[in-house]
Amino acid sequence: MEILLPSMTITDKIFLCKTLVLPKPSTRALTRTKPQFSRSSKLPPSAHIPRRKTTSYKQNTVQFDDLHENWTLKRTLLEKLKHKDSDPVRILEEDGDWSKELFWAVVGFLNQTSRSNQILQVFDEWSSKDESRVSVFNYERIVRLLVEEGLVDIAVLALNQMKDIWGVQPSSEIYRLIVYGFVKSDRFEDALFHLKVMEDNEMKPHASIYNGLIKSYAKNGLYDEMAKCVKRMESNGCFPDQSTYNLLIREFSLAGLIKRMERTYRIVISKKMDLEASTVMAMLEAYASFGDLEKMEKIYRTVMRLKPRVYLNDDLIRKVAAVYIENYMFSKLDDMGIRLYSRTGNTNIMWCLRMLSHACLLSRTGMESIVREMDYRKVKWSVTIANTILCAYAKMKDFRRFKGVILEMEARNVKPDIVTCGILYDAHGFGFDELDYRIKMGFFGDVVELKTDPLVLVAFGKGDFLKIVEEVDHTRSQGWSYEHLIDLVKQRQQGI
Question: How many helices (H) and strands (E) does the chain have?
C-alpha cells in the first residue's frame, strides 16, 4: 500500500535541509586503497577474506532508513506547525515525546516564523519528560534566541525558572546575555540589577558587558554615567582594556567633549595601548568641527601614517578642508588632493580640493594647470569645477576668461545649477550682463538644482542671489524655474 505524504513547498525543503544532519559518507566508498598483494602473489588455500562490502552495504542501508524516517517525521511535524492556530505544546503532548533533533527543529521553525514567544513553553514541556534535558547548555541556547528576538523579559523567566524550579546555577554567559538584552533596550535599572547579581555571586563580568553599558549611556547622552561605569569596572576587578578606552574616546569625540576625550587619550598613551583607526578618525573630526588647526593637523598626520591605510569619507575631508580655508592655508588643499589621489584615484572631491587651492590663491596659471591635468587624465568637468573657476575670475573681474568658462561649459556639456545662476547674477553688478541671454538660449535647465560641492561656498561665500533665495518660502518652490527665481530676487532687491 503506497503512503501519500503531504506536499512540500520549496521553503519547506530548504528548512528541512538546514535542520537535517546527513551521515558522513563512508571513506571506503570515496577513497581508493592500495592492493595488499601484488599481481604475482598467490593466496594460500586456507586464506579467507571477509566480505566487508556486504556488511558496509547493510550499514548504509540502515543509516538511510533512519534518515528517511527522520525526514518523514520532521516533514509531518512541519506540516502540523504550519497551521495558523497550531499549538506546539499540544502537538508535543499528542506525539508523546520528541528527539533532540526534532525539538531543536521546532525551535528553529518557531524562531523563523516570528513565534519565538512560544519557545520557552515548548522547552518546559519537552524538558519535563526527561530531567536530563534541563542543562545549562540548553538554557543558554534558549536565552540567546530570546534575547536576539528582543524577548528579554521571557529570557528572565527562563533564568528564574532555571534557578527556582530546577535548582540549576545559571552560567555567567546567561547573565551576560540578559544584561546585554536590557542594555540594548535602554533599560538600565534592569541591566544594573542583573549585573549586581553577577558581582554578588562572584561571577566576574567580562569587559564587553561594561562596554555595552558605556555605549548605551553615550547613545542616551548620559556621559556622567559612563565615568561611573568605568569606576565600577575597576572596583570589581575588571580593569578597562584597550577596547574600553577606544570606545570612551570615540563617544567623547562624537559628543564634542574635548577635555574628556584628551584625558582618556593621555591614559591610552601612558598605558602604551593602541589607538584604533576609528578612534583616530573620531578625534580628527572633533578637532575639525571645533576648528582647532594645530591639534587637527597633528591627528591628520597620524591618520596618514596608519597601516593599513584608512580612507576618509567626503564629509570628514570637507571639515578638514574648511579649517584650512578659514585659516587661509590654501596650499594645504592641493596637498590633501594629491594624497587623496594616491589612495583613491580620480574622485570629485579630490579635483575639487586641487582646483580650490589655486582658485582661492587667484592663480590663473594654477587653475589652467589643473584643467590640463584633468584633460590629460580624461576627467570630465563637473559643475563644481566650473563654478570654482567662475568664482575666481569673478573675484579677479576677469570677464574675458569668465565668459570663456561659460563657453567651455557649453562645449563640455556641463549642466549649470543654482550656484552658477547666482554667480552670473551677482557678476551683473560688475559689468557682466549675459544672464538673461543665457537663459533665453537654454543654458539653464527647466529644473532648479544644487550640485556644487559645499566647499566652493565655504571658500567664496554666498552672493546676494543665494542669500535672498535662502530667505524665500521653499514650500512653494517645487515648480520654480531659474527665470522665476531671478524675477523674485529682483523684486526683493527693489523692495517690492
Answer: 27, 0
